[in-house]
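Technical note accompanying the year-one report. For the benefit of new consortium partners, we illustrate the data format agreed upon in the data management plan: each record pairs a sequence with a structure-token string. No post-processing was applied to the example shown here.
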Amino acid sequence: MHHKVRQISLVSVGLVAGVCVSIGISAVAQKQPSDPLPLSELREFTEVYGAIKNFYVEPVTDQKLFEGAISGMVSNLDPHSAYLDQDAFKELRVGTQGQFGGLGIEVGTEDGFVKVISPIEDTPAQRAGVKAGDLIIKIDNKPTKGMSLSDAVNLMRGKPKTTIKLTLLRKSVDKPIDVTIMRDIIKVQSVKFKMLDDGYGYVRITQFQEHTGEYLAKALNKLEAEKPMKGIVLDLRNNPGGLLNAAVGVAGAFLPKNALVVSTDGRTEDSHRKLVVTPSDYLRGQEKDYLSDLTAVAKKLPMVVVVNGGSASASEIVSGALQDNGRAKILGTQTFGKGSVQTILPLNNNTAIKLTTARYYTPSGASIQARGIVPDFYVAETPEGDVVGRIREADLSHHLNNDKGGQETPPPDERKVELAPDAKDLKPILFGSADDYQLQQALNYLKGKPVAQNKRPPEETAKADKKK
């Protein structure tokens, strides 16, 4: 891929992949394999193909067989590589505008089922009670066991104002749960902001979209014009990620010019990149530099970033950049650990493959992959623990390892996640509200008051001690 690449995120109808990806303009065929083709394996493949064509109980089209073969070949690599059919590829190219039709859930696969990574804030799925970690075992009574993720996506797609029934398995509930959801146009407001008590600005970013950096700059200017700010709280909780250039722009709002935000590394020359606070790394084309008119206090005020296990990919890039550059303290719980780069490689028939091609590294050189960002202050959702349990990258089958030797987050059965004793009876926290315990602790830090921390899980203790 010798042409300049363009970063976009996979946003499907009702499903958000929550990853930073780049789209390759040149055809896949231009990259020839370096090794000879394995003739014995190709012979076996053609034998299987011929057997299906000749003996399967019903006729099967060539297109279905080849698409299935491609899909299986790619999806077995890692949780984020996938085959995109024509509909999925079309939605990918138009889905970063902050509006799309569907349910509003981020999903992956686990043990042959579709697994909910996170419902998107203020969407039909969240309002219907879908929770992170739920296994979708049926879609409109059709079992999902063994179903490819793309097929499941196709079943969940549909016109707004039409209904769909999901059957869910939840660890805390003995029986399957049936949930009927009305599809809708999902409008994701990526930047929300308000002035908190005593002049502290609160900015929540729900997703990294095309104009998120621009909206953030406007929000900070409005807050400073309303009342001189004493400090800033940046809320990235449950933010699944999005556009890489948007992440660089958001970090750039708080960092000095040319500060390193993130680096990537993989097997190809294209994958060796360092992204810094410069317009060429956060702007698209000839658009105006939205950071040029940003209030100067944004780069100077005391700052806290609030994260949790639902903060992934671009959220982790921003958190890691601000932490490693000494610009902000990170408060909350360990992030998701999505530290890989996906490249969209178009095929010749308006389809594509989404292929993992590199890993992300924070400015200090630490790998985000299957590790995430360890907060400076470990604070759960309540004094007793979290209200909602969350899955992380390390919980997903076939996830990439942490090549820098970082301790991976253990799977849920081995991870000592501290949940509040009455978590089942508690409602999810309304971020930014007066009852938001993590936000209150962030304000305590900015005001010079003690921060009430929860007991840090064992897997975080070693790294936290090493940082001191």
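Partners are asked to follow this layout when depositing records. The chain has two domains: 99-187, 191-340+359-467.
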